[in-house]
Amino acid sequence: MKETRPRSFYVLSCVFALFLLFLYGPMISILVLSFQGPEGGLVFPMNGVSLHWFEKLREGGGQVEIGPALRRSFRLALVVMVLTVTFSVLAGLAFRRGFRGATLLLYVAIASLIVPSIVVSLGIALEFRLIDEGIKALGAAWGIEWIQRDFVSALGPFTSGLGAHLTWTLPFGLLIMFAVFNRFDPAYEEAARDLGATPWQTFRHVTLPMIAPFLIGVAVFGFTLSWDELARSSQVMGADNTLPMQLAAKTTTVTDPEIYALGTATTGSSILLVLVTFTVATLLQRRRQRG
């Protein structure tokens, strides 16, 4: 006898399909519009099909000044990724031992997640403006010529910008590592110490290989969150724009499908990064299980 599905099944299926369309529709639209011809615009219908805008993007002579902003964002994301992984692991190890004030410190560390991003950006910018005033006052008081002649501001991608991005990536890294170490079986470390391993050898040969797949996840979080961060970057980068800031600035002026081509290229790169990450994590997991 053929099973009859209830009407609610079809209603919920339609709702889910609409949700998927709302979630991925903009990305699909950008993907399609990026393959327009030379006379194409930013809306449908398409005007021809070609790789013109990808070629223009590669040449770097179009509306979007991608080169410097792209390289700046990539370097910043790499630094944020390394610092996020390092601090998250160290904090996870410290919280395993327990210390006075650990709970308060945890709340302070993750508090930036609930503070509006633009407020964080404004606060860091104000802080660095005060630092600028202090440096200029010091240069005037001590007669330091290079400060009086060349110093403009301490605001920049790898000073205030780096701090702003870490306020966003570190809490996620900390929460992941806390969850990992809460489920971590210390019997493996105790066995290594019983066999004469030093604390460093225990960490390197036992703890680190077991948490390596999760470190890859923290690294991906750190890189991607920094790569596309806009609100926390808006007030703290000084004269140097990151790629999201550059795109936001360009969309307020005359634009063309080159921006869509850039979106397609970066989305493809992000998907490739995720696939490579999952592959590496799976291989590490299998290697650990065989060991």
Automatic annotation (TrEMBL):
Transmembrane segments: 9-35, 74-95, 104-126, 165-184, 205-227, 259-284
InterPro entries from the UniProt entry: Bact_Polyamine_Transport (IPR051789), MetI-like (IPR000515), MetI-like_sf (IPR035906)
Coiled-coil residue spans: none
Domain ABC transmembrane type-1: 70-284
Keyword Phosphoprotein: no
Pfam families the UniProt entry points to: BPD_transp_1
Gene3D superfamilies reported in the protein's UniProt record: MetI-like
Gene Ontology CC terms, in alphabetical order: plasma membrane
Topology of this chain in the membrane: Multi-pass membrane protein
One Gene Ontology term from the biological process aspect of the record: transmembrane transport
Family in the record: Belongs to the binding-protein-dependent transport system permease family. CysTW subfamily.
Protein name in the entry: ABC transporter permease
